[in-house]
Design goal:
By secondary structure, the protein is mainly β. The chain has three domains: 29-208, Cupredoxins -  blue copper proteins (Immunoglobulin-like, Sandwich); 212-352, Cupredoxins -  blue copper proteins (Immunoglobulin-like); 372-498, Cupredoxins -  blue copper proteins (Immunoglobulin-like). It is built from three helices and 35 strands. The strands form eight sheets. It has a six-stranded mixed β-sheet, with no helix packed on it. A hairpin with a 3-residue loop joins strand 1 and strand 2 (38-44). The longest helix has 6 residues, at 189-194. The two termini are 41 Å apart. Bound molecules: copper (II) ion. Residues 428-429, 481, 483, 486, 491 line the site of copper (II) ion.
């Protein structure tokens, strides 16, 4: 489908050892120099949680010696004294994925790069070192920060050989939860993200809304990425999002995750892939959603399945089923007649084992909610998403993306309501930078939002009404389809917030 953008397979690095997630239980501060790739990353304990990665012996699924990997998280780079300095080197390297050695695009040599972990009010100074033969850049998906200068500015091009220093100042009231970072280089975001350029961000503080007895539960990041292999590499041209693809959790195929019967864990599910959607289900238990797209919910809601379009995240509480094995799966999902069909696939195996624990009562009310239903609407707009019949060009308001054109001008300190229409025979995933939105209705039916969100699936020939408030940041930033193949082929537009 996508033939735009390619990276020559010239630079073959040495094999990469998957990063081992450091124990987070203690209060020690460790200083690690990661093969000279991460400058100074202070890796400290987060909030007293139980180690999220455990020795293989504990989680060996069956004792059969099968190749099932133990669950493991990427290493974490954690802020100290309100600052985190990170160096991300972007380069093509050979990585080991699902037992194959493949050339991939990596941050610091890893297909599943470090998790960046901060608290509201922190500053992130991030040096992006581009060792690719093409441009790249960085987007901090979901962050409510300035889109200008060297902050979350996706109009920057970091050229081959360049090092660029981003600096992000997080608001003191930035919502806690799971975010992510990825390349936003137009029009090659699909190949760059698909080949590996995405990682997770955690903003701490979600625990404060939990009852005291649940504030120290084991936390696990489950970052969902899929890859295909062609000629010893993840393809960076001609990517077919409908082709068979290998789904990974933190870069692992079907890892074994341990839980005790009755135990409550906090899982951070994040779809950080380029194109495909997931419909996740965990056999024997339900997902109890405490944050969506890093927006803590007003009321905890539970579901058997969660649809996760590209870019979406859910922070959920799960509780260990009776002793035994159960599967975390993605169920069959179709994005429409002109879209893709994704088959059922096992993502991970949950091993409920060990001494049973009394099952905790989960909270119902959770976090404060700034409900935009109460806002006066200053401006209403209709935005249309469409595509040509061959699905080779994708449009917003009948136009292909133009980086220098302002498509929407909004005023600071206003609330707008947008009716986002999808005229196509396939779903699209609406996403906007900087300011999250509240879904008001879907296909004319009132939607009972329990939080804001930053991604929403647009139904085939349907519409979603959203509200958002422009309060803190001036400047230009995009909204687009988060199926990156569509974004690269035109489905992106610019909003500018003016005084
Ligand atoms: Cu789309």
């Amino acid at each position: 489908m996508s033939a735009i953008g390619s990276v020559p397979h010239a630079h073959v690095g040495r094999p990469v050892r998957p990063g081992r997630f450091p124990a987070r239980g203690g209060r020690r501060i460790r200083r690690r120099v990661l093969a000279g790739l991460v400058a100074v990353a202070v890796v400290i304990s987060g909030c007293g949680g139980v180690p999220a990665g455990r020795p293989a012996a504990e989680e060996s699924p069956t004792g059969t010696g099968a190749a099932q990997p133990s669950f493991r998280e990427p290493r974490q780079l954690v802020s100290a004294n309100k600052v985190l300095k990170v160096r991300l080197v972007v380069e093509m390297r050979t990585v080991e994925l699902a037992g194959q050695r493949l050339r991939a695009l990596t941050y610091n040599g890893d297909y599943m790069p470090p998790t960046i972990r901060l608290s509201p009010g922190d500053r992130l100074d991030l040096a992006l070192v581009n060792k690719l033969p093409e441009k790249t850049n960085l987007h901090t998906h979901g962050w409510h920060v300035s889109p200008q200068g060297n902050s979350d500015n996706i109009y920057l091009h970091i050229h081959p050989g360049e090092t660029y220093r981003y600096s992000y100042r997080l608001p003191k009231d930035l919502a806690p939860g799971t975010y992510w970072y990825h390349s936003h280089a137009h029009p090659i975001s699909e190949p760059q993200v698909f080949a590996g350029l995405s990682g997770a961000i955690v903003i701490d503080g979600l625990e404060k809304y939990l009852p005291a007895g649940l504030r120290h539960v084991t936390q696990r990041l489950l970052a969902l990425k899929d890859f295909q292999a062609r000629n010893g590499a993840i393809p960076t041209a001609g990517i077919d999002s409908n082709a068979p693809t290998t789904r990974t959790v933190n870069g692992l195929v079907d890892p074994a995750i341990a839980i005790r019967p009755g135990e409550t864990q906090l899982w951070r599910l994040a779809n950080i892939g380029a194109d495909i959607a997931y419909k996740v289900q965990l056999q024997g238990t339900r997902f109890n959603v405490i944050a969506q797209d890093a927006n803590p919910v007003s009321t905890v809601w539970s579901a058997d399945t969660l649809v996760m379009p590209p870019g979406s995240r859910f922070d959920v509480l799960v509780q260990g089923p009776p002793a035994g094995r159960s599967l975390l799966r993605t169920l069959p999902y179709t994005t429409g007649p002109a879209g893709d069909d994704y088959p059922e696939t096992t993502l991970a195996t949950l091993l409920s084992t060990g001494r049973p624990m009394p099952q905790a009562t989960l909270p119902t009310t959770f976090a404060p909610f700034d409900d935009l239903r109460a806002d006066r609407v200053d401006r209403r707009r209709t935005i249309t998403f469409s595509e040509n019949s061959a699905s080779t060009e994708f449009y917003i308001d009948n136009k292909l993306f133009a980086p220098d054109r302002i498509d929407v001008r909004a005023r600071l300190n206003t609330t707008e309501e947008w009716t986002v229409r999808n005229l196509a025979d396939e779903e699209h995933t609406f996403h906007i930078h900087v300011n999250d939105f509240q879904v008001m209705s879907v296909n004319g039916r009132t939607y009972n939002a329990r939080s804001w969100q930053d991604t929403v699936q647009l139904p085939v020939h349907g519409e979603v009404v959203i509200r958002m408030r422009f309060r803190d940041f001036l400047g230009k930033y995009p909204f687009h389809c988060h199926i990156l193949n569509h974004e690269d082929k035109g489905m992106m537009a610019n909003i500018e917030v003016v005084p």
